[in-house]
Design goal:
This protein is an alpha+beta fold. It has 19 helices and 21 strands. The strands form five sheets. An eight-stranded mixed beta sheet has the order 3-2-1-4-5-10-8-9. A five-stranded antiparallel beta sheet has the order 11-12-13-15-14, sandwiched between helices. It has a three-stranded antiparallel beta sheet with strand order 16-19-20, covered by helices on one side. The longest helix has 20 residues. About 40% of the residues are buried.
């Protein structure tokens, strides 16, 4: 996600550290000639196979445990160290002719990644004090001294928030952007706001992205500025401020600019994500033409700057709906809007659901998920799910709709009262799909986020135990089903198919598989 902050034009890049990291493929996707340097042959073999699968050119070399790298002076335009392989900063500076990037833990961090996505260890006071005197990580001051001793200059320090192993926001630790958004959820944490106001964020941040360069390096403006200028066709080169820089879980860099012409730029960091971003951009155009009452961002088109492709759209105001999670009054307002908006997205009027329809919309999904299911119990459960769905749906009459495919709170932009301002990220859309799933997915994920439970528990609470439905959830569902004239039988059949749809969306759209996820989450 920090790649758009680089000021070196594309060239040769050496990436030192865990070859499982997405940074190697990300740089290769952005046009760099990448060499991965790791001490684990298995990780290197995996990285090589992954790059070939993604159609990326990427070299690998195994560390031999030496203090000196097998490269001549100033061999690389970019040198990155992510993890400690016993290499001193002076050695990184020796082989670099452009920029040097350190991804590093902060000794004074108040929390650490556990290595599991989204899970962090917040340290107790005793653990925190013990860590201050340990050798784990260093402070920003320590890293700054290292870089200066190596003859590097122009340090730009960033926090990878919440942690380098699992971060979302890349935040500048100087007065310049990008910054950390402070939403309603963050403002409720008085201790965090106090620490922010006291300027403690650079001291307590879990990890860093530290970007410096050789004194004689040929530098450009940061890639983010060049992209923003190109998107706005600015000839004077004065780009709007980069307000936020997001590393999405799907492996995109999302640039959000401020100012009067606020933009959102999507930079896909791997090939399959580029397919989704292109689909998102074309879908925005189609939606604004076919369904003008549906609020979505205005697409501005795509652009290519020095081999880096991205899509540009207007940036909507407000907050993502995750910031109103748990506020049932605002959630009620949002779900009311969603049920009305998505009931309009009919692309095939009600007619008999045929065997051909079933195979295309359900059968293909069952086979895609079954192919990756590693155990007989899951395959049998999927087969039974397909059989029941065929009995309940084939021959019944209902419309097909344009689906979002992944409608969660982070893809719904709302105002302070919960009114919907727009729907984001249409990369998983289907032009003709079963109705109801989008609304169902949003409700279940809202429950999951609020109660901190898994998807299966949230699904069972809403679909299997209908008596537990909240008034606003039931009202939104009834409004949607009434508008599309969905019978209770069709509604229950689609609710029962929810695990299949979620698993298939992941298998179809991500560059890796989750074969045991459907069993672990849903008990299938």
């Amino acid at each position: 996600g920090w790649i758009p902050l680089l000021r070196t034009g594309t060239g040769r890049a050496l990436v030192i550290g865990n070859a499982f990291s997405g940074v190697g493929p990300g740089l290769a996707q952005a046009g760099w000639q990448v060499v991965l340097h790791d001490d684990c042959p298995a990780r290197l073999a995996f990285a090589k196979a992954r790059a070939e699968d993604l159609g990326l050119k990427l070299e690998t070399e195994q560390s031999q445990g030496r203090r000196r790298l097998p490269h001549g002076d100033e061999s690389f335009d970019l040198v990155l160290r992510d993890g400690d392989l016993g290499l001193e900063t002076q050695e990184l500076a020796r082989i670099a002719r452009g920029e040097v990037v350190l991804i590093a833990d902060n000794r004074y961090a108040y929390k650490r990644s556990t290595g599991v996505h989204g899970e962090f260890q917040v340290r107790s006071p005793v653990e925190y004090l013990r860590n201050l005197f340990s050798s784990e990580g260093q402070s920003l001051s320590d890293y700054t001294k290292q870089l200066k001793r190596a003859g590097l200059v122009g340090l730009r320090a960033h926090s990878l928030y919440p942690h380098s192993a699992d971060f979302t926001f890349c935040v500048s630790l100087s007065a310049e952007g990008p910054s950390l958004p402070i939403g309603p959820k963050e403002r409720a944490n008085k201790l965090k706001i106090l620490a922010h106001r006291l300027g403690l964020f650079p001291l307590l941040t879990p990890s860093f992205a530290l970007i410096s360069h050789k004194p004689r390096a040929q530098l450009l403006k940061p890639l983010s500025e060049r992209l923003l200028c190109a998107a706005l066709e600015l000839e004077d080169g004065q780009s709007p401020p980069l307000e936020h820089l997001v590393a999405t879980r799907g492996n995109n860099a999302l640039l959000l600019s401020g100012g009067r012409q606020a933009l959102a730029l999507h930079i896909p960091m791997e090939r399959r994500q580029e397919v989704q971003v292109r689909r998102h951009l074309s879908t925005l155009r189609a939606l604004r033409e076919e369904f003008p009452n549906l609020p979505v961002p205005r697409p501005l088109g795509s652009l290519d700057v020095e081999g880096v492709w991205c899509a540009a759209e207007e940036r909507l105001g407000g907050w993502t709906a995750g910031q109103i999670c748990g506020d049932h009054q605002k959630i009620s307002r949002m779900l009311s809007d969603v049920s009305s908006h998505f009931a309009e997205l009919v692309t095939r009027p009600a007619q008999s659901f045929t065997e051909h329809d079933f195979e295309r919309l359900i059968g293909e999904r069952v086979r895609r998920v079954t192919l990756k299911a590693p155990d007989e119990e899951t395959r049998a459960a999927l087969s039974q799910m397909e059989k029941l769905a065929r009995e309940q749906l084939v021959g019944t009459s209902f419309p097909l709709v344009r689906s979002h495919g992944d409608l969660r709170s982070k893809h719904v932009q709302v105002d302070q009262k919960g009114n919907v301002l727009g729907y984001l990220d249409w990369g998983a859309t289907e032009e003709r799909d079963l109705p109801l799933f989008d609304l169902l997915h949003l409700i279940i994920n809202e429950r999951k986020q609020e109660a901190q439970i898994n998807a299966g528990e949230a699904w069972r609470a809403f679909c299997k135990e209908g008596k537990n439905r909240r008034v606003h959830e039931q009202a939104a569902t009834e409004t949607y089903c009434r508008r599309l004239e969905l019978s209770e039988q069709v509604q229950r059949a689609i609710e029962a198919l929810y695990p299949l749809f979620v698993a298939d969306a992941a298998e179809k759209n991500w560059d890796y598989s989750r074969p045991r996820w459907v069993r672990r989450q849903f008990g299938l």
